[in-house]
Amino acid sequence: MIETIRLEVRVNSHHFFLIEEGVSPITGGEEGVTDIGIARSAAQRASFVVGRKDGTVNLTVCLASIDPGPRLSDYEDVVELPIELHDGVVAVHSHWGNGYLEILPPLSRGPGSYRIRYHALKMDEGEWAGYDGGIIDSYLLQIWPDNQRKASIVQVRSRYAQSMMRTVAPEG
Fold first, then answer.
1. Could you please report the per-residue DSSP string of 77-103?
2. How many Å apart are CA 54 and CA 97, to the nearest integer?
3. Between the CA of residue 168 and those of 39, 85, 118, 147, what are the distances in Å?
């Protein structure tokens, strides 16, 4: 089963977040943070880098009961990382204004270990555009139950994502 949610998300400072209720979206230097360049995760939260500095991006979220498979031909950049959730209900959040918040439907298995596959399209063009204007860059989050704990770089083709990956050594 796959449930698909399409959103227009106002981003600030090149980021948006996935969080459980009552949790700060910022993943700092604490233990247990997984960093894969354009995405980071820690218990109950994850942050995602976008090309657009400030403005609106397209985001599609697919909540699945099994791995839906990567969409490599539709997106330039694809990474995967783990997330541990305590209640199985998450929201998309940004720091725009008072903090955009879109609560997503409950995940298929409730609390537990999940995998996030983050896809990016036109990240370079979004970064070049900088501030607001029309929607340029698009993103896809696929989320499904999985105990895999290592982050993975699946594909990186944009210059912006490549520059972010230079600072991160993949696990494994």
1. EEEEEEEEESSS-EEEE--STT--EEE
2. 11
3. 11, 24, 16, 22
Task: Report the C-alpha gap between 69 and 115 in whole angstroms.
Answer: 12
Is position 172 within any domain?
no
**CATH code: domain of residue 136:** 2.60.34.30
Q: DSSP class of residue 152?
A: E
Task: Let me know if residue 170 belongs to a domain.
Answer: no
Residue 171 lies in a domain: no
Per the structure, the count of domains in the chain is: 1
How, if at all, do strands 55-64 and 138-145 pair?
A: parallel
81 and 118 Cβ atoms separated by less than 8 Å: yes
Domain of residue 131 covers 2-165
Q: What is the pLDDT of residues 94-135, one digit of tens each?
A: 875 556 678 899 998 999 999 999 999 999 998 888 666 788
For residue 128, tell me if it sits in a domain.
yes
Token pair in block for residue 58:
């397209």
Burial class from Cβ neighbours inside 10 Å (0-12, 13-18, 19+) for residue 8 reads exposed
